[in-house]
Write a structure and sequence with these properties.
This protein has one helix and no strands. By secondary structure, the chain is an all-alpha fold. The relative contact order is 0.02.
C-alpha cells in the first residue's frame, strides 16, 4: 500500500510539474510579446519625439516670422488709429459747424426774409412814386 501511495503522490507531482511547465511557457511567450511591444512603443516614441522637436523648431521659426511681420505692420495700425481719431475730430468739427450754420441760417433766413420784404416794399413804393410822378406830369402837361 505504501508503494501505491507513493505512486499516486509521484503522479500528482508529475501533473503539477507539467501544469507549471505549460504555465511558465505561456508566461514566457507573454513576456516576450510584452518586450516586443515595449520595443515598438519605444521606437515609435523616439520617432514622435523627434518629429515633435522638429515641429517645435518650425513653430518657433514661424512665430519669430509672425512677430517680425506684426512689428512691420504695427506702424500701419498706429497710423490707422491716428487717422480714425483725426476723422472723428473732423466729423465733430463738421457737426459743430453745421449746427452753428443751422442756427445762423435761421437768423440769416429771417434777415433774408426781412431784406426781401424791404426790397419788395421799396419796389412797390417806387412804382407808386413813378405812377404819381407820371400822373402829376400828366396833369402838369395839360
Amino acid at each position: 500500500m505504501g508503494k501505491i501511495a507513493l505512486m499516486i503522490i509521484a503522479i500528482a507531482i508529475s501533473i503539477l510539474v507539467i501544469f507549471l511547465i505549460v504555465l511558465i511557457v505561456k508566461l514566457m511567450k507573454t513576456v516576450d510579446e510584452i518586450n516586443r511591444t515595449i520595443s515598438v512603443v519605444t521606437q515609435d516614441t523616439d520617432i514622435l519625439l523627434k518629429q515633435a522637436d522638429t515641429l517645435m523648431g518650425k513653430t518657433n521659426t514661424l512665430l519669430e516670422d509672425i512677430n517680425g511681420k506684426v512689428a512691420t505692420i504695427d506702424p500701419l495700425f498706429t497710423a490707422v488709429a491716428d487717422l480714425s481719431g483725426t476723422v472723428s475730430k473732423l466729423n465733430d468739427t463738421g457737426n459743430n459747424f453745421a449746427t452753428r450754420m443751422k442756427n445762423k441760417a435761421s437768423n440769416v433766413g429771417k434777415a433774408t426774409a426781412m431784406v426781401t420784404l424791404g426790397r419788395g416794399a421799396g419796389k412797390l413804393f417806387r412804382k407808386k412814386d413813378k405812377k404819381k410822378k407820371n400822373d402829376d406830369s400828366y396833369y402838369v402837361s395839360r
